[in-house]
Write a structure and sequence with these properties.
The protein is α/β, with parallel strands linked by helices. The chain has a single domain, classed as Alpha/Beta hydrolase fold, catalytic domain (Rossmann fold). It has 13 helices and 9 strands. Helix 1 packs parallel to helix 11, helix 7 packs across helix 8 and helix 7 crosses helix 9. The longest helix is centred in the first third of the chain and has 20 residues. The radius of gyration is 21 Å and the shape is globular. The termini are far apart. The N terminus is likely disordered.
Amino acid sequence: MPRTLPSRTVRRPRSRASAAVLCTAAMVATGIVTGTVTASVTVPSAGAAPLDAGSPVSDPGPNRVTPDWSGLDVTGGIPLSDKVGVPAGDVPLNPGLGLASAGEQHRFAYSTHDQHGDVVASTAAVFLPTGDAPAGGWPVLAWAHGTVGLGDECTPSAQNRSPRDTGYLNHWLDQGYAVVASDYAGLGTPGLMSYLNGSVTAANVIDSVAAANKLDSVGTDLSTQWAVIGQSQGGGAALHVAHEATARSREAGLDYRGAVATGAPAYIEELVLAGSPSFPPVVLPAGLNVYSAYIIAGFREAHPEIDVDSVLTAEGRRIADMAETACYEALEGALDGVNMANAFARPLRDVPGLEPALRDYMATPTSGYDRPVFLAHGLRDMDVPTPVGLVLNSEMWLKQFTGDASANAQVNVRWYDADHSGAMVASMKDSTPFLESLFR
């Protein structure tokens, strides 16, 4: 039997690490507000040592998950259309991997773009509510999932989803929405999933909705009206989707309505660019180490022309290599107690061409949203630290009033006395009427 993907709840951090997370995030937030981000995260010289050396990296061991492909194993590739958003395979989803509130559920493959500009395969699951579809079909919510890992064994549609995600998705099915849940290109398909690569993940999600509408099995039961919902990594993906979806939807004959993004990361590139032999100065929670490792691995693969390895220590290269295959739970165990400063022989921003490329790879837009956006964040979030969410949400909200062509159409901001996962759950009481208003 497949094993349930673990919920993204980071272990309770030691107090010194907690202070380091919040102080670092506050530095970045202050820099963004004052327009001096680079100065705000200036770190000691390359020869300096971190305050806390931490523990050595351990072996992550095998992933504790066994993929169930539901009879559609495309890890070795599948024939594809040269156009994106076209189905390439469709099977019933193994009931053991399904959602209790779904009346019908399938796993399918489809064509999309990857980080190298190629048309490649991705996979997704589609869930329909019980009962007969309304006139015009079930309105669609595209679910952008959070961090699970980069390797094929981490593929969400081939695992039992976490209790948090299961409850969340069942809620939307109960509200009368169909759910299309992309795995993102590289998870369960050839190539590496490009972690936090905003434009590529947005393409994967948009193309999954277009392909689902063309499925012989359920396509006629789906409306062309859709919105995107996402948490954590998926919250950032939802914002990138929202930034591009209106134009892309028109091309695909779809009608994009808006976005819900919870725990969305932003400005994380500033923290990554600060990486050096002395930064971070202390051991951070294991979850933040995992995110850093996935970013380095994903960016390194997406930009082979940029010599990331030249500033990594042997331990840093080992971490990046492990991140390409180790799922979240395994990598979290391997990096628990590790100070990521030990991954760097020199400051990361010393690599020629890296800084602008990293910003292009993962920076979250704060303006140009032409459809409503709902933003939610936890006041006790340590995964995407609360000060970062404060700046992103405030900046996007204020940019409703700039009066120019890039002004945001509508931004609803909500805060919850909760951690990273708890805020997503708590937000449902507000995001439910928000989404309902989009489809009236």
